[in-house]
Each structure stands twice: as structure tokens, then as C-alpha cells.
UniProtKB/TrEMBL annotation:
It is found in: Cell outer membrane. Residues 223-236 have a biased composition (Pro residues). Keywords: Cell outer membrane, Hydrolase, Membrane, Transmembrane, Transmembrane beta strand. SUPFAM superfamilies: Outer membrane efflux proteins (OEP). Residues 426-441 have a biased composition (Polar residues). Belongs to the outer membrane factor (OMF) (TC 1.B.17) family. It holds the Pfam family OEP. It comes from the Bacteria. Residues 217-236, 426-448 are annotated as: Disordered. This is TolC family protein. Its main location: membrane.
Amino acid sequence: MRNRIGGLMAMVVLIVPLKGIAAPSLQQNNQSLQDVKALTAEQLVVAVLTRNPGLQGLTAAAKAANYRIEPAGALDDPMLTYAGAPKTVGGPRGFQERVELSQSLPWPGKLGLREDAARARAEGAKQSLADGRLALMAAAKSLFAEWAYIHRTLQIKHAHRDLLAELRRVAETRYAAGRARQQDVLQADVEAALIDTGIVTHQRRQREVQAMINGLLNRPPQSRLPPPAPLPTPAEPPSLLALQKAALEEHPELRRIQARIDEARARHGLAEKDYFPDFKLSAGYNSLWDDADKRWTVGLSINLPFDLSGKRSATRNATLTDVMRYRWQLTDREAQLLAQLEQGRAQVQETRDIMAINRQRLLPLAEESLNAAVADYRAGQGSFLAVIDAERQQLRTEDNLARTHADYLRALATLEQTAGRLLANDSSHSTQINQAPTDTVGQRLEQE
């Protein structure tokens, strides 16, 4: 459990960034959750996507990259040059001066390639934003799963704490009647103290998870959070083929790498065209010439793209190597995603199956075992230690069921992040697992 908390803390530290970007105020964030009576995973995800400053920063970066597309394909500013001859002041011809207006013109196709590179960078920033949204959604759902588990396990432990108090009263009654040993009463006290220790530990973990969720929400760590709504009923995940198809077509990380390939191709095209000269057109007036017919001038300048130092060849080879590098990176990431999808789907199925075994088989058996142990103890045919063992087993079974349900939601969130899309889940049917497992035993004890 501590490792899970540590992993979630590391995730939040990586995701929650500096808060210099304009974001909703802490007071507004607090007020918007006051009316929520039972927090769902979907509500938490929406709140995180709305308030997280890191996502706002990625949004601003995507907008900035989009704004840079048009300037990348524009011509350089025209240049106005002015020069004067100081010693001609007061001369017979007056002050002599020279004025020139020039405009640089790159080789045809260069501007389009620069714009293509900027457009590819903008697409990469857009996909980084989408990838950031996926990461935040997975983090929010994982934290919600932990939030729900902690609330449920505290309910279970308090219920068993009450059950032990009733068992202790039964043991005291039987001890007073000479039908039981004092050790039975002491054993109940020891077990109750152990449960109290678990309650204290989970209360501390509850504060940790609350602080991490508030960190994603850009709120003070101690801000109140609504209790969790029942977790959705586990459903069969999509087929592996459907998940792989969706990931290869839609995953923003793959699209971001493809955008890098497009940018590298555009830069390689620019490197190819760098072997051709650029132009500069100019027109001016020079009054230094005695002949008035020579004072107006027009001109054309070009650079001489000799590759004597090999710099153009090096640049071209580097850009071509970048294209190959990103292609291999794309191939490698596709293979990793396919493997992660196989692993993630298997984990979702595993937690779903384990949850069904706990709910349908182990939990009823644990309850029957506890009922039988209590009945034997009341009839003088069983030991109080057998009752305590049965109570421990039921506590472990209930806690494992709650833990597995939370693990299912966490595994599903990870699978969604790997697939690059939300997965259909029947959230309309929620279940509160094992709401009052000890009621039957408690009622029987009260009747004694």
C-alpha cells in the first residue's frame, strides 16, 4: 500500500507544474466542489482538466506554436538604407546623400518548407497537449480509486471494530457465567487494538491522497474533498485488436513523433534548397553622381552557395539522419504500445476476475465461516480463537475485495492512457461492494 502511495506521489510530482500560468484561484476551486455530495471519477477528471495549471501551460504552448506558422512562411522585412556625405554640406551642389530600398527573396519553395516545419511543430505541440490530458486523466482516476478504497476500507474496519466490541461483550457474559476463559476477553481487546492501528494508518493515507488530489486541482492540500461515489461495475474491456487499432491510429504520442518526422522532412528539404542562391532586389537614389542619369539605380544580389567547407552537406546529412531517427523512434514506440496494451488488458481482466471470485465465492464463505464459529462458541463447542480467526479472514476478504475494485479502476485508467482514448464502461450501474457484511453476525450477537 505504501508503494502505491509513493507511486501516485511521484506521478503527481511529475504532472503538477509551476503555477505561473493564469489559472482559477484557489477560492474559486474550493467553492465549485462544495455542492458535490458524492464525487465520481468523471467529475474529478473534468475538474482536473479544467483547473490544472500544467494543462493550461500546454494549451498556451500549443496556441503559441500555431501563431508561429504564418510568420515562418513570410518574407523578411524590407530594408531601407540611408547614407550622407558630411563634407558636402554647404557645397555648390548641396548635401549629397544616398537612399536604397531592398527586399530579400529566398529561393522558390523555401518559404513553404519553413511554414511546413512550423506547422509540424504546432501539430507536435497540439499532440503534447492531448498526451498531457491523457496523463492527467489517468492520474486523476488512479487517485480517485485510492480515495474510494481508503473510504471503503475505513468503513470495513469500523464495522469490524463494532463487531469485536459485541464479541467482547459475549465473551464477558460467558466468562461471568463460568463458561469461558478470561483470555477470550483479552483476545478481543488485542484484535480491536490491531484494527485501531489500521484505522490510524489509513486515516494518515487518506490525508496523503487528499493532498495529492488537491495538488492536481491547484488547491491547498487541506481543502475538503467530497466522499467518493460508488465505483462503477467492472466491464469486459475491448478486444486487443480494437485497442491496438485505436492506439496506432489515435495515440497522441505517436502523432507527436509523426509531427517530428514531418518537421525533419521539411528541414531536410530546406537543406536541399540551401544549395541554390537567395536573391535580394534593390532600388535606390544616389545624388553623389554628377550625371543625373546615374543617380537612380536598381540591382539584384545573390549569394554564392559554394560548399567549400562542407557545411551544406553536413546540414543536409544531419537533417536526413533526423528523419531516420524519428522513424525508428516511431517504430519503437509502436512496438512498446502494442506490448503495453497486451499487458494492460490482461491486468484489467485479472483484477476483474479476482474481484468476481472475492465477491461471489470468498466473501460468502468467509461470512458463513464467521457465523459458524460464533454459533459453535455460543454452544460451547468451539473456541473464541476460532471466532477471532474467522473474523480476521472476513476482514481480509472484504478489504481484498475493496482493494481489487480500486485496482481495476486504476488498471483501466492505465489501459486508457496506453490506448490513447477513453474506453466504454457501464458507469450507470455502480456498486458499493459489501456494504454491511457484519450486520448479520452483529444482529445474532445482540439477540444472545
